[in-house]
Amino acid sequence: MKKYLIILACLFFFENQIFSQNIGYARGVIDTLASPEFFGRGYVNSGDKIAAGYIVKQLEKFDVKPFKTGYLQPFDMCINTFPGEIKLVANGQELIPGTDFVVYPDAAPTNGVYKTMWLNGESLNTPQKIKKFNATRLGKVALIIDTGFKDLKNEKLAEAAVLISITDKNVSWHVSHAQQQAKQIKISLKRQTIPETTRKIYLKIDASLQKIYVTNNVVGYLPGKVCPDTFLIVGGHYDHLGMMGNKTFFPGANDNASGTAMVLDLARHFSDTANRPRYSVAFLFFAAEEVGLLGSEYFTAHPLMPLKNIKFMLNLDMVSTGSEGIKVVNGSVLKKEFEELKYINNRNNYLKTISERGEAANSDHYFFYKNGVKSFFIYSLGDEYKEYHTVTDKSAGLPLTKYNEIFKLVLEFFHSF
C-alpha cells in the first residue's frame, strides 16, 4: 500500500511538472506586446525592435540559451511605411483611419483634392453607359466602387488615381503587399461613412518606402535531457501590422501576441530541467510574417542548427479561443503525428475537436515543411472572438478560452517524441 501511494505521489508530481502553464504570465505578455508603446510591432517607430528586445529579456530571465550569433538573427527587407499623417476628408467630415477606412499597404504619398466618380448599380446598367465610362479619362479621379462589375476591365479601373471600394463590413488591414509603392492608391471604406452625394475628397498620405530595413528573428534554446543535438522547435511570429499613420496602430493581441505568449510560457516551463523532453527545444519568434513569411523563410535559408536535426516544428498562431477546438495545418499529410495529437486529446478531453487541414502556405511552418522538416501549424477555433487585423484586436477582449488546454496538449505532444 505504501509503495502504491508513493507511485501515485510521483505521478501527481510529474503531471504537475509537465502541465505547469501560467495563464497569468501569458496575459501579461499579451498586454505588453499589444500596448501602444509597441506601435503594433511593425516598422514605424521601431515597433518590431522594441518587441524583439522585450522577448530577449524574457528569454534571459528564463535562462534560455542563445545560439553562437546571439538571440537576434537580423535580415533586411524592403517595406512601405506610414510614419506621418493619413487623412481622408469627405463632405467636410474627417474620417478615422483604421475605423472608417484603411489605405492599401502599397500606397504612395499624396496630398490633394480628388474629384469623385461613383460606380453603382445605376451607373453601369446599360451597354451605352459602360461605353461612355470606358471613354472617360480617370487620371485625376477617385473612383468609388459600390459593387462588383464583371463587365468592367481591370485596365480601365487602373487608370484612376485613387480606387475606393465600399464595404459593409468592418475594415481590416494587411501588409502582405507592402514591399513596393504602387502607382494607384487603393482604399477600403465603410459604406455609412461617405454619402453618394460626395463629389470630392481630400486625401493626404505620408508614406515612406524603406528599401533596406533591418529586422530580427529572435531565437533561443534549452538543451534536451538525452539528445541535445536534436531539436524540437516551437515558434510563432511576433510581428504585426504596425502603424497606419502616426495615430492609428493595430494591437495584434490575437494575431499573434497570443502565440508569442504561449511560446514564451513554454520557455518558462522548460527552463526547469525537470520538465525537459529528450530533445533540445528551440524557441523561434519570427519577424515579418505579415509581410510574407519573410522571417521563417530567412531562418530556413540560414538555419542555426542543421535542418536535418529538427525532429519536429510546431507553429502557434492565433490561439486565443478554442471553444470549437483547434485546426492543424498539415494534419492530413502527417498522419502519424496528427493521430498522436488526437490520441492525447481524447485521453485527456482537452478540446472539443482537433480538425485536420492539408498543406497551406499561410504561416511560419510553411518553409520548414517545404524544406523537409515535419511541421504543424495550430490555430484555435471559436466564435467567442473574431477580431482579425483590426484596430480592435486588443488584449482586454481576448478570452484565452482554452489556453491551458492547448498548452497541455503541446507539452504532452513534445514529450511523446
Oligomer: single chain
Total number of beta strands: 18
- Overall geometry comes to elongated
The gyration radius over C-alpha positions equals 24 Å
Regions with pLDDT < 50 over 5+ consecutive residues? 1-18
CATH class label of the largest domain:
Alpha Beta
CATH superfamily grouping of the largest domain: Zn peptidases
Second CATH tier, the architecture of the largest domain: 3-Layer(aba) Sandwich
SS element count, helices: 11
Q: Please tell me the overall pLDDT.
A: 93
Overall tally of domains: 2
The N- and C-terminal alpha carbons lie at a distance of 33 Å
Helix/strand order, N-terminal first = HHHEEEEEHEHEEEEEEEHEHHEEHEHEH
Structural class: alpha/beta
State which percent range the strand residues make up.
25-35%
Can you summarize the main beta sheet?
8 strands, mixed
CATH topology of the largest domain, what is it called?
Aminopeptidase
Sheet with most strands: strand arrangement: 1-10-14-11-15-18-16-17
Helix content: 25-40%
